[in-house]
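Researcher: We're teaching a course module on how sequence relates to structure. For the next exercise, students receive a sequence and then see the predicted structure as tokens, so they can try to spot secondary structure elements on their own. Here is the exercise chain.
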Amino acid sequence: MDWQSILRQISTSLIENGDLNDEFKDSSFDWLGAKGTSDSEMEFHEKRLNATLPPSYKEFLKVSNGFKQLNTFVWNILPVDQIDWLKKFDPDLYELYTIDFKDDFSASDEEYFVYGDEQKTTDFRSEYLANSLAISGWGDASILLLNPNVKFGREWEAWMFATWHLGPVRYKSFEELVLGEYSSYLDLRKSNN
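Model: And here is the predicted structure for the students to work with:
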């Protein structure tokens, strides 16, 4: 995937449509990304996390080590030095799904492995949420997570977890998440015009 092109396209769309989050509106920039990370910094943080990050996410970080806003609901995709396991990143959310909702979300394989429009956001597993990697701050009641428990080749399942969905919108990779969430943004823009 050409991350530079797709991230420029996302930046241009959000800026030209006036859909930037309030904290970014007064800034004069034409790119919502950051300088890419180095291989050595990536390796350092993989050791810190005790995990090999999925390829599409690593390629993204090499082009843009963080990204201000993906759509109108997701912002602050974090630089690699700020990502962490949910237990440490958001102890309250972690506790909610390891104690309060521990047994409430335990989808069968038949329910779980449905992607795209047929997917139900309540068909997930609490244990996977609890063991996920947080890669964004909280946007409009949403956060991006990577799930190392479900892999497609070397890619990890990627989640856009939003409180209004009652669960995550799941994708087979970080690349699919970015493309899917940007597509959802464009569809929302069309329906509002």
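Model: If you want an answer key for the exercise: The chain has one domain: 3-191. Residues 171 and 180 are 8 Å apart (CA to CA).
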